[in-house]
């Protein structure tokens, strides 16, 4: 709902979109309604009432470093843009999505990343993509971190920037919010962008803050 801020939903539509049972979706929606993060209009359609509050509440509990699994790799390529071009050319047709400071850098350059993080579906796909990118596994912390997500929902709403796949701004924000090494700064810069976008959708921006 945060990714599609201008859309109204039925419970069944949300369940179908997220591949979650109608019963569980109903339980979650009931909680969101009670907490006034979403509302239901006269046509019984659901929409986000206060996107900023909902997003920050989610982000506060989201621990990117702990809920995901990380595979450490190393590239000898020193230039970020050169490696990003390699991603564009070598794995264009693969399922992946950049996140963390690298993803934020592509959306709006603010904090320059020193490593590259991207989601893939599972460890087998990670190994295959590592071969395509010619990156090597390392016992320590690498400068390329392939992330196995806690939930495949991280791929929802991904976009292409310069031919490179990046998670949605919503996912980027929650991944960065509690992330060290200037993650909070990058998250705030990203939030400023989202706030402007929300203001164009929600009348006068009055529901955003």
Describe this structure in words.
- The chain has helices at 11-18, 22-34, 51-61, 64-67, 80-90, 100-107, 123-133, 169-177, 183-201; strands spanning 38-40, 46-48, 69-74, 97-99, 116-119, 136-137, 144-148, 159-161, 164-166.
- A hairpin with a 2-residue loop joins strand 8 and strand 9 (164-166).
- The protein contains nine helices and nine strands.
- The two termini are 17 Å apart.
- The chain is of the alpha+beta class and 209 residues long.
- Residues 204-209 have low confidence and may be disordered.
- It folds into two domains: 1-49, Arc Repressor Mutant, subunit A (Orthogonal Bundle); 64-192, Beta Polymerase, domain 2.
Summarize the structure.
The protein is an alpha+beta fold and 209 residues long.
Q: How many strands appear in the DSSP assignment?
A: 9
Which architecture of the largest domain would the CATH scheme give at its second level?
2-Layer Sandwich
CATH topology of the largest domain: Beta Polymerase, domain 2
Q: Gap between N and C termini, in Å?
A: 17 Å
CATH domain class name of the largest domain: Alpha Beta
Q: Can you give the mean pLDDT? A: 92
Q: DSSP strand (E) fraction?
A: 15-25%
- Secondary structure category: alpha+beta
Oligomer kind: single chain
Q: Percent helix among the residues?
A: 40-55%
Q: State the shape.
A: globular
Major sheet details: 5 strands, mixed
The topology string of helices and strands comes to: HHEEHHEHEHEHEEEEHH
Widest β-sheet, arrangement of strands? 4-5-7-3-6
Rounded to an integer in angstroms, the radius of gyration calculated over CA atoms is: 18 Å
| Uncertain segments | 204-209
Q: How many separate structural domains?
A: 2
The count of helical stretches stands at 9
